[in-house]
Specification:
With 105 residues, the protein is α+β, with helices and mostly antiparallel strands. The protein is built from 2 helices and 6 strands. The strands form 2 sheets. Strands 2-5-1-6 form a 4-stranded antiparallel sheet, covered by helices on one side. Helix 1 runs antiparallel to helix 2. It is elongated and about 55 Å long.
């Protein structure tokens, strides 16, 4: 299993979530976050904007669904300009359902 943490523009969140659901990947968690990338923000006159609103989408997928999920996220979150976000993938060792203790997704 893999955990995907996708940090995307807030205005792209619903499009990404809908495309994931259409691809058979409806389970995700959304969090509103603030951050900046390599540019360390932007300066306009004397004002520096160094934290921008983003949305973090978290989801766990089976290994065989990883490439499909990444393709959907990258295609639907992209505007082609700086600030589109990042996607991180990490290994998930175990997962449990809280309501019944079942192991796995």
């Amino acid at each position: 299993m893999k955990m995907i943490r996708a940090i995307v523009r807030p205005d792209k969140t619903e499009g990404v979530a809908e495309a994931l659901a259409l691809a058979g990947l409806p389970s995700l968690t959304k969090m509103h976050v603030f951050g900046r990338g390599r540019t360390k923000g932007i300066r306009i006159g004397d004002v520096v904007y160094d934290e921008f609103p983003k949305t973090m989408l978290l989801m766990v997928v089976e290994d065989e669904k990883l490439e499909e999920a990444l393709t959907v996220i990258l295609e639907n979150a992209k505007t082609g300009t700086m600030g589109d976000g990042k996607v991180f993938v990490t290994e998930v060792v175990e997962a449990y359902t809280v309501s019944n203790g079942t192991k796995g997704l």
